[in-house]
Amino acid sequence: MLLQRPLTSVHAQAGQESFRSITRSYYRGAAGALLVYDITRRDTFNHLTTWLEDARQHSNSNMVIMLIGNKSDLEGRRDVSKEEGEAFAREHGLIFMETSAKTASNVEDAFINTAKEIYQKIQDGVFDISNEANGIKLGPQHAPPAGGSSGQSGNSGGGSGGCC
C-alpha cells in the first residue's frame, strides 16, 4: 500500500495565512495528517482549533489526524502541558503524542501510528481502496484480487500481503 500523497505535516504557526492557503490543497485526497504545535510556544497550541477546522473542512471526513506536541526535548521551556495536548486530542477525536524533531524521539512512531490507523480504516471498510480520492493508491504487487475485496490478497508468492 502506498499513500497517494505523503502524510501532511502542518506546523501551527500564528499569522501564516499564505501557508494556510497552500496547505488547503494538500488536504484534498489525503488519508492522514499530522497537526504539529510547539510545546514551548502557547500561541501555536492556541491556533490548533483553526488548523483543525481547515483540515476537516478541506479533507475526507475519515482522514486520520494525529496531534503532535513537538520539541519534547525542551522540557524546561515547556509552555503547554502534555495533559493539555492529550485533552485537546481527546476532545477532538485525534491521536496524540509528543515528539522531538531534534532528537528524533517518537518521530518515526508518529508516522507509523498514523499509517496503522489508516490501515485499520482500510480493514474496517471505512476507506475504499479502489477509490484513489481517499488518498490511498495500491501498487501493482498489492492490487486487490478479482472481485475487489479490500482484505488480504491471499498472495502466496512470498510477498507480504500486509500494510507498509
Automatic annotation (TrEMBL):
Gene3D superfamilies: P-loop containing nucleotide triphosphate hydrolases (3.40.50.300). Residues 136-164 are annotated as: Disordered. Residues 148-164 have a biased composition (Gly residues). PROSITE patterns: RAB, RAS. GO terms for molecular function: GTP binding; GTPase activity. InterPro entries: P-loop_NTPase (IPR027417), Rab_GTPases_membrane_traffic (IPR050209), Small_GTP-bd (IPR005225), Small_GTPase (IPR001806). It comes from the Eukaryota. Belongs to the small GTPase superfamily. Rab family. This is RAB2A.
